[in-house]
């Protein structure tokens, strides 16, 4: 079977992330163990897989449709969509990268480690191991302590530039089945090409 013309087009980019507040005195120690590549079969993946099945069987073309497929994929309510533009549950993006660069050094070769630990006894020190039975290696990543309650600035998400708007309109919009969804996701840009 040959792939269709939309196969190599990119209608949208999705990001999934988690955030944790440490170094605030709320915990004595924090441990994080990453799974080895290829060994990531665990409950969150299962729920994501359940959603992918529902997603493939749908004609979802806009974020509202996608959110519906997420909700409908889980009978027990485990899969919950968090929409960025939902005024009842706002998602605020903060400029963490710039903020954290002021207080922490980068850990070089971080991808070779799978086990991480930090303790309240050694603020700013990250204890790493390649494997669970490997010897621990300590890295002092702290440049300066942030003030308590200090948060990064709100990250302003710029609107799509006119080139991206025209790309979506010309390359992606023709594949939409639902005209209403097409006009939401890929409206004709008001800025001339």
Annotation field: number of helices: 5
The profile of the biggest β sheet is:
4 strands, antiparallel
Biggest sheet: strand arrangement: 1-2-3-4
**Which term fits the overall shape?**
extended
User: Unreliable segments (pLDDT under 50, ≥5 consecutive)?
Assistant: 14-19
Distance between the termini: 36 Å
What value does the Rg take, in angstroms?
22 Å
Q: How many structural domains in the coordinates?
A: 3
Summarize the amount of helix as a percent range: 10-25%
* Beta-strand residue percentage: 5-15%
Average pLDDT for all residues:
82
The beta-strand count equals 4
Element string (H = helix, E = strand): EHHHEEEHH
The assigned structural class equals alpha+beta
Summed up, what is this model?
This protein is of the alpha+beta class and 193 residues long. Helices cover 25% and strands 10% of the residues.
Would you mind describing this structure in some detail?
Strand 2 and strand 3 (125-129) form a beta hairpin. The chain has three domains: 42-92, no CATH class; 94-152, no CATH class; 157-187, no CATH class. The protein has five helices and four strands. The chain has a four-stranded antiparallel beta sheet, with no helix packed on it. It has helices spanning 43-56, 63-72, 96-101, 162-172, 179-185, and strands at residues 29-33, 115-119, 125-129, 137-140. It has 193 residues and is an alpha+beta fold. The model is unreliable at 14-19 (pLDDT under 50). It is extended, with a radius of gyration of 22 Å.
């Amino acid at each position: 079977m040959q792939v269709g013309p939309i196969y190599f087009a990119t209608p949208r980019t999705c990001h999934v992330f988690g955030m944790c507040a440490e170094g605030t005195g709320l915990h004595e120690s924090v441990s994080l163990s990453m799974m080895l590549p290829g060994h990531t079969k665990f409950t969150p993946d299962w729920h994501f897989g359940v959603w992918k099945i529902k997603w493939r069987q749908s004609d979802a073309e806009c974020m509202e449709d996608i959110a519906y497929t997420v909700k409908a994929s889980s009978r027990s309510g485990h899969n919950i969509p968090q929409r960025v533009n939902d005024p009842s549950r706002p998602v605020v993006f903060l400029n963490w990268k710039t903020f954290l660069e002021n207080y922490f050094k980068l850990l070089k070769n971080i991808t070779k480690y799978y086990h991480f630990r930090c303790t309240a006894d050694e603020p700013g020190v990250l204890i790493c191991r390649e494997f669970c039975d490997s010897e621990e290696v300590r890295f002092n990543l702290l440049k300066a302590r942030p003030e308590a309650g200090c948060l990064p600035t709100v990250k302003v998400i710029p609107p799509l530039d006119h080139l991206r708007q025209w790309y979506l309109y010309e390359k992606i919009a023709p594949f939409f089945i639902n005209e209403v969804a097409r006009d939401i996701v890929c409206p004709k840009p008001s800025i001339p090409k």
